[in-house]
Amino acid sequence: MGETSSTAAESVDRARSLLRRARRVVALTGAGVSAESGVPTFRGQGGLWRQYRAEDLATPAAFAHDPRLVWEWYGWRRGVVSGCAPNAAHAALASAAAAHDDFRIVTQNVDGLHVQAAQHVRAMPLELHGSLYRSRCTRCDHRWDDRGTIDATSRETLPRCAACGMLARPDIVWFGEALDPSVLGEAMRLAENAEVCFVIGTSALVHPAAGLADLTRRHGGSVIEINVADTPLTPTATVSVRGPAAAIVPDLLAS
Question: Which one of 34, 52, 82, 86 is separated from 114 by 20 to 30 angstroms, measured CA to CA?
């Protein structure tokens, strides 16, 4: 059960001790780790683009109906996120992953900030839900890095596959789609083998990512949660620390 009676200082000390002793760590991150970089959620209250909600645009049906509109939205999102930079939490996680082969980052975020921070990491962060900065062919499934400006003035100007010429789509897992089985499988393997699952800034509501901490716990590992508020994971976490990721994560990972 979570250490709900611990003081804040005791929780920090306990989390730091668990991380220092662990040889295999998987860090699972969500929107909270990027909030301090200024990345908006694009969902919920305040997430409207024109009159559209993210839930109306990030679907296969929306793309089939109007790919120009969907690409225009993703082009706008790229523009917003391109003005954001990795924060101290991204940097600390990247440094830990660079220093230890068995420290791996798994993220639910599509903002690319973990990849941007991970300049010297041998094993790049696993992006469970894809990336704003990749495109994928709608026919041959070819994927490529894509940081270009989106020209959505017409269907003919939208990104196309260099391999077969077909229309491309953002390489993002949309509502109603399954995660890439190879990426999810690797994340599950890491969680099962981890001595610590370090959960940072995630609501613990979106599955299957939300189940990774449970995999670690069921295989004998510990779960450390960093968040500004309680989540469904809090009652079963080994230790929970309240506060912003950019302040807490570097402190916990400092050698």
Answer: 52
C-alpha dist (Å) from residue 246 to 127, 198, 217, 242, 253: 20, 14, 25, 12, 12
Instruction: Report the b/e string of 157-178 with b at 16+ CB within 10 A.
Output: ebbebeeeeebbbbbbbbeeee
Let me know if the fold of 1-39+86-129+179-255 is the same as that of 40-83+130-172.
no
In the chain, what are the helix, strand and coil shares in percent, each to the nearest 5? 40, 20, 45
This prediction has a pTM of 0.93
Report pLDDT digits (tens) over 163-208: 999 999 999 999 999 999 999 999 999 999 999 999 999 988 888 9
Torsion from C-alpha of 55, 56, 58, 62, nearest 10 degrees: 160
Point out the residues that are catalytic. Answer: 129
| Residues 6 or more apart in contact with residue 221 via CB below 8 angstroms | 194, 195, 196, 197
CATH class of 1-39+86-129+179-255: alpha beta
